[in-house]
Amino acid sequence: MTADRKAGQSIGSVFPHLVSQDLPKMVAIKDADFSDVDAVFCCLPHGTTQEIIKGLPKSLKIVDLSADFRLRDISEYEEWYGQAHSAPELQKEVVYGLTEILREEIKGARVVANPGCYPTSVQLPLVPLIKANLIESKNIIIDSKSGVSGAGRGAKEANLYTEIAEGIYSYGVTRHRHVPEIEQGLSDAANSKVTVSFTPHLMPMSRGMQSTIYVELAAGVNFKDLNQQLKLSYEDEEFVVVLEEGAVPRTHNTQGSNFCFINVFPDRIPGRAIIISVIDNLVKGASGQALQNLNLMMGFPENTGLLYQPLFP
Ligand SMILES: NC(=O)C1=CN([C@@H]2O[C@H](COP(=O)(O)OP(=O)(O)OC[C@H]3O[C@@H](n4cnc5c(N)ncnc54)[C@H](OP(=O)(O)O)[C@@H]3O)[C@@H](O)[C@H]2O)C=CC1
Ligand SMILES: CC(=O)N[C@@H](CCC(=O)OP(=O)(O)O)C(=O)O
Fold first, then answer.
1. Nearest Cα to Cα of residue 234 among 305, 312, 128
2. Residue 221 in contact with residue 134, Cβ under 8 Å?
3. Alpha-carbon distance 187 to 310, whole Å?
4. N- or C-end of the chain: fewer Cβ atoms within 10 A?
5. Which CA distances in Å does 266 have to 135, 269, 302?
6. Residue limits of the Semialdehyde dehydrogenase NAD-binding domain (predicted)?
7. 263: CA distance to ligand 1 center in Å?
8. Rounded Cα gap, residues 211 and 227, in angstroms
9. Residue 67 Cβ < 6 Å to ligand 2
10. Reported ipTM
11. Which pLDDT tens digit goes with each residue over 15-31?
């Protein structure tokens, strides 16, 4: 376990719920000994990750939780993240870690780019529907909401209790950095360029994420076809659950678990449908999906360490 400002501390002093774990103290990355390590989860801020991964032993399997390797197109990374990519060679061997969609590729990967939380909640419902030609790939509108933990644990004025409590606010309006990641995945599914309208919102809750997605149905399709297709696509999946008709997915029911709950509703406007998808941003949107990916890369049962039930079932 490594740290930056907290190097030298025990994990229990940083995360008190782990106080009873007998784990070594955290060290700075430069002092870490990788000689007996098979795999790492890299949970560093964007930008720092490219530099650090380059210096790690080539034998290590890596699941990177940052955005540094999610975009295949380096120029797109530079445009949306506002900085030069410092490991373009490594980018070529990276597999995007949307587990249920890219499972076979992930199994053989050495480096996996774990998806962002918003892109996970959006792509899980939309990719199977686009692949099956059940929805139009134009005019997709995505309204997403996140708990504050999505912004990390570092102190920021915008994330103070007084700024967040008793209100919601939209941010990244018209230009959030998850747009190209969402469009990359949906374009792969459609085999043509897909563009989306996407607005994220910060909610006064610590964790949880909802994406409400407005789509146009393909000719002759009705919302029940969407529901059926999603049920079929995910029937053998443990962590993606399509709810029964009419049931509204709630972030509460995902808290602390690796589940993604999805449902499809008919819009009042003929020819349109509304899809709701919920995850825990810290689990399916981050560490849970990362562990699911590493389990695949290591040949472990995919649900190892992930059998936590939601806190609010
Ligand atoms: N929070 C979420 O919901 C999600 C986060 N992610 C991504 O996962 C990554 C980690 O996120 P999160 O845990 O929320 O972020 P935090 O800000 O809470 O944690 C960042 C971690 O990186 C360490 N760190 C910071 N700068 C450096 C550096 N220069 N060198 C070495 N270590 C450093 C910090 O150590 P210390 O505390 O000791 O300074 C800390 O452990 C980010 O890339 C984030 O975008 C992905 C999906 C969802
Ligand atoms: C609430 C909040 O600030 N959320 C983060 C997204 C967190 C995440 O999952 O994605 P990354 O790994 O790309 O950081 C944001 O909007 O930048």
1. 128
2. yes
3. 32
4. C
5. 13, 8, 34
6. 1-109
7. 32
8. 16
9. yes
10. 0.95
11. 999 999 999 999 999 99
Could you tell me if residue 4 is inside a domain? no
* Structural domains of the chain, count: 2
* Euclidean distance between CA atoms 254 and 164, whole angstroms: 21
Tell me the Cα Rg of the chain. Answer: 20
Reported as a single tens digit per residue, the pLDDT across 81-95 is 999 999 999 999 999
Same domain, 245 and 276: yes
Q: Is the CB of 209 under 6 A from ligand 1?
A: no
Pairing of strands 111-113, 94-96: parallel
- Residue 100 tokens, joined: 């249920």
Tell me the residue ranges of DSSP E strands in 203-288.
Answer: 209-216, 240-242, 260-266, 272-279
Residues 129 and 74 in one domain: no
Nearest Cα residue to 146 out of 15, 293, 284, 45: 284
Question: What is the CA(117)–ligand 2 centre distance, in A?
Answer: 7
Query: Which range (52-56, 98-102, 253-257, 302-306) has the least confidence?
Result: 52-56
Residue 313 confidence (pLDDT) above 90: no
Which ligand 2 atom is at minimum distance from the Cα of 67? 13
Host domain of residue 51? 11-115+285-298
Name the amino acid, one letter, at 302.
Answer: E
